[in-house]
Write a structure and sequence with these properties.
Elements lengths: L1 H15 L20 E8 L2 E7 L7 E8 L5 E6 L3 E4 L7 E9 L8 E6 L9 E6 L4 E3 L3 E9 L7 E9 L4 E4 L1 E3 L4 E7 L11 E13 L2 E14 L6 H12 L4 H46 L5 H23 L17 H14 L8 H10 L4 H13 L1
Parallel strand pairs: 9-16
Antiparallel strand pairs: 1-2, 2-5, 3-4, 3-6, 6-7, 8-10, 10-14, 11-12, 11-15, 13-14, 15-16
Helix pairs in contact: 2-3, 3-4, 5-7, 6-7
Length: 392
């Protein structure tokens, strides 16, 4: 009789706490550890953020179990923190989560809940820059920005605004809507040449569009890089003919010298423009690195995802730095050349390749590697340097 009453009470307790899922542990599990309390879940655009509370000591860790409704749960994470970001949760799926506390000797009963990950709502509009198609302009030139806003519910968008932003130049201007073209138009005069900017430079313009739909606010941001140079394109041949017609042949040598100087100056300017573009690429790589670090801080991505992205960024950075310093001009570098190397190792490799330049007579790849190891370089770095030197 007592056994039947116990079974009935157990069933009543299970029904009253249907919002929680219990992990299948042994019958003695959790005897010495308190189960996590105060579980909460927050939906984000790329996953579910779960947090909880626990009164245990500093040596307590936590296991996160997850499974589809009606299927066994599996451990998807082990953490020392009292929170976890599940970036692998698929939109529209219904999951059972359970959190247990454990230490070196014991594991608690799991506290859990059932939740459905909602399907992310798509933005009701997208923007694209129609004009200018050209990316290089002269100082003081007036250009027309044309932005197209595409939406299947365009007529329902309220308070639709498009703004041009340039933080470097302190520019913030609103576009005008052309109802006939159904495009947003803005005439913008580029800055005049100033001290320190008379050799050309690149600057980033951002297009920010915002609107509300059914009481909800939406926005879209795109960035475009324009290059400003001190002069417009010059027809060198026509310039030379005009000089000859006015001053005659005595000034031919002077004209040729001037043309050579002008070509040299233009080449130098173009080279500087390329270097500025490469430096801008390095800044973009560093910006992307900081953004990914911030995502790790917010627990929106895992450490493994960040390490994979960091390896890709290091490869891109090595290629750009190689172009800037002309260190490995004859080496076929690609995004996988420095995969698995840290930033410090890549810089060390590039410096050694530039210093050695080419192998000595009678030297082999293995002997160069052994020599570098003998000089205190790591086996990993020495092997990569030797390979790059002999690939030249």
């Amino acid at each position: 009789m007592f056994l039947r009453i116990s079974v009935v009470l157990a069933l009543l307790v299970l029904l009253a706490s249907s919002a929680f899922a219990v992990v299948d542990l042994s019958s003695d599990a959790g005897a010495g550890l308190e189960m996590p309390l105060g579980l909460s879940a927050e939906f984000r655009s790329d996953g579910i953020f779960i947090s909880w509370q626990h009164v245990g000591g500093q040596d307590v860790s936590f296991k996160v179990y997850r499974g589809l409704i009606g299927n066994p749960s599996k451990v998807i994470a082990v953490t020392n923190e009292k929170s976890f970001f599940d970036s692998t949760a698929e939109a529209g799926q219904e999951y059972e989560y359970s959190i247990t506390a454990f230490d070196a000797t014991d594991e608690s009963i799991g506290a859990g809940f059932t939740i459905t990950n909602p399907v992310a709502e798509e933005k009701p509009f997208v923007i694209s820059l129609v004009e200018p198609k050209n990316k290089t302009f002269a100082f003081g030139e007036e250009i027309e920005f044309v932005v197209k806003v595409e939406s299947q519910r365009f007529d329902e968008l309220q308070n639709l605004e498009v703004v041009l932003i340039n933080q470097e130049l302190g520019t913030t201007r609103a576009f005008s809507f052309d109802s006939e073209r159904k495009e947003f138009v803005l005439l913008e005069k580029l800055p005049e040449a100033k001290q320190g900017r008379n050799e050309g430079f690149s600057t980033a313009y951002s297009i920010l569009a915002s609107a509300s739909l059914e009481g909800e606010q939406f926005s879209e941001l795109e960035t475009y890089v324009l290059t400003l140079v001190p002069v417009k394109e010059l027809d060198s041949a026509q310039f030379a003919l005009n000089i000859l017609a006015v001053f005659g042949l005595p000034f031919l040598l002077l004209m040729l010298a001037s043309t050579v100087a002008f070509v040299g100056w233009r080449w130098s300017l173009q080279r500087k423009t390329v270097r500025d573009r490469l430096k801008l690429e390095l800044l973009e790589i560093e910006k992307e690195r900081h953004l990914w670090k911030y995502e790790v801080f917010r627990r929106k991505i895992t450490s493994d995802q960040f390490r994979e992205k960091e390896s890709e960024l290091q490869s891109k950075q090595a290629v750009v730095e190689g172009k800037l310093g002309r260190r490995v001009e004859k080496t076929d570098l690609n995004v996988n050349t420095f995969q698995g190397f840290s930033t410090a190792e890549v810089r060390e490799i590039m410096m050694l390749v530039k210093t050695i330049k080419k192998p000595k007579k009678g030297q082999t790849e293995d002997s160069l590697r052994a020599r570098l190891v003998g000089l205190g370089r790591s086996e990993k770095v020495a092997k990569k340097v030797a390979r790059l030197v002999f690939e030249k």
